[in-house]
Design goal:
4-stranded mixed sheet; binds copper (II) ion; Immunoglobulin-like; alpha/beta
Length: 127
């Protein structure tokens, strides 16, 4: 008896679809996966940004949709956190004062300090 598999286009399409589904499932579960590296976890959970020395630290932050990001000014001069697209504008944040913005939409948001425009940062919001 001769066993012979013919790879019909339909079969290949099914296998491709299953492979894509598996990949999507893996990506979807990655945030709950305890095998995540420390770097990945820190990136997703960072929502506190320090303003000091004419810098936003960290300058790039990644959060999930619905998470609030808080900026705290630890410098002796006032700063702002102002979205480039106008989504939010803290106004002047004095020394030791804070400002929070909750991100309800996924996307990449660049921002700057309206008093010192060379101060810039980016918030990436993941759906
Ligand atoms: Cu500033």
């Amino acid at each position: 008896m001769l066993h012979f598999t013919v790879w019909q286009p339909r079969t290949r399409a099914m296998i491709l679809a299953v492979s894509i589904s598996a990949a999507v499932l893996l990506v979807g579960c990655s945030s709950d996966d305890s095998s995540n590296t420390v770097a990945e976890v820190a990136q997703v959970d960072t929502n506190e940004i320090v303003i000091d020395d004419f810098r936003f630290t960290p300058a790039t932050t990644t959060v999930k949709v619905g998470v609030a990001v808080t900026w705290t000014n630890q410098q002796g001069v006032a700063h702002t956190t102002t979205a480039s697209d106008g989504t939010w504008d803290s106004g002047s944040i004095g020394t030791d004062a804070s400002f929070s913005n909750t991100f309800d939409e996924a996307g990449e948001f660049s921002y700057f300090c309206a008093i010192h425009p060379s101060m810039t940062g980016t918030i990436t919001v993941e759906g």
